[in-house]
Amino acid sequence: MLIRTPRGWEIPERDATPEHLVFGRRAALKAAGLGAATIAAPAFAADLPAAERNARYPAGREVTAEKDATTYNNYYEFGTDKGISRPAQKLPLQPWTMRVDGLVDQPRDFGVEDLLKAMPLEERLYRLRCVEAWSMVVPWTGFPLSALLAQVGPKPEARYVRFETASLPAVMPGLRQSWYPWPYIEGCTIEEAMNELSFMVVGAYGKPLPPQNGGPIRFHQPWKYGFKAGKSLVKVTLTAERPKSFWEAIQPSEYGFWANVNPSVSHPRWSQASERVLGSGERIPTQLFNGYGEWVAGLYTSLQKERLWA
Ligand SMILES: Nc1nc2c(c(=O)[nH]1)N[C@H]1C(S)=C(S)[C@@H](COP(=O)(O)O)O[C@H]1N2
Ligand SMILES: [Mo]
């Protein structure tokens, strides 16, 4: 039975095309010899298979209300304020292809629907700490980045992973702000990518990942500031050189490559000692590596000369 997945934000029922009608329409267009590109697709991803919660990663605090996590977003392609959840619904999530290429044995295009079937899906409660000093806890569904990289075979000379996110001028008004170095790029080292915490996210709150949170597929490394987590990924490239990220290109003195959470290293314009909890508004102390040091501190012992903290 096909059931329309309910969303965390309110779409008036009349604006939402039931999923089975979308599939029917696509099949009909295909039969008529029209490509999928001709469809003005609504923001629906494929159904999300059920995924068990992984108990290795306790949230340590209350899960953020779905309404808050899905209506208070940073997604500059749609605009620089937090209220982009509605315009972001124009992002066509299906079909969606993410290329994995660069220094790998087998570059490949992955359809997100195929990844949902092929990858070992699990749910993780992860904290997200934005560099702007607010935070949330979200039940993300996804799979380790290492499982994806195993599909393409990284070459020994691959040292970094570069993430490129979608750039669709027809639906992303923010791209008209041409002084920004679009597309939004992020990156990490291979060692960071292979860490078990590095997670490719395809769902939130048991539903397909909505566009405003980076649907249909985004990245998340919970020990780093949120800007490292590229949304709506179109390309993952293994490289020998350190990629220059979007924020690093804009303001290198404020947003570096490593961007690990550290309460004792202030942003040039504000303290990072505490954070505002999304929803309750409570202020709580920020933890080193956002509390994930037990998994990741070892990655940095030989890198003490680097600017590790944003
Ligand atoms: N493509 C893209 N990815 C992005 C951003 C963005 O503007 N564009 N903002 C980043 C920032 S600053 C944060 S804090 C998180 C926010 O994710 P959320 O909206 O799911 O909370 O997404 C990150 N990923
Ligand atoms: Mo952020």
Q: What does this protein structure show overall?
A:
This protein is an alpha+beta fold and 310 residues long. The protein has one domain (13-27, 38-300): Oxidoreductase, molybdopterin-binding domain (Sulfite Oxidase, Chain A, domain 2, Alpha-Beta Complex), CATH 3.90.420. The chain has 7 helices and 12 strands. The chain has helices at residues 19-31, 66-69, 112-118, 145-150, 190-194, 246-250, 293-296; strands spanning 97-102, 108-111, 122-129, 134-144, 160-165, 185-189, 199-204, 207-208, 218-220, 233-239, 274-277, 283-285. The termini are far apart. Residues 1-42 have low confidence and may be disordered. Molybdenum atom (MO) is lined by residues 74, 130-132, 226-227. Its EC number is 1.8.5.-.
Key attributes of the depicted protein:
molybdenum; disordered N terminus; 310 residues; 7-stranded mixed sheet; alpha+beta
Condensed summary:
With 310 residues, the protein is of the alpha+beta class. The chain has helices spanning 19-31, 66-69, 112-118, 145-150, 190-194, 246-250, 293-296, and strands spanning 97-102, 108-111, 122-129, 134-144, 160-165, 185-189, 199-204, 207-208, 218-220, 233-239, 274-277, 283-285.
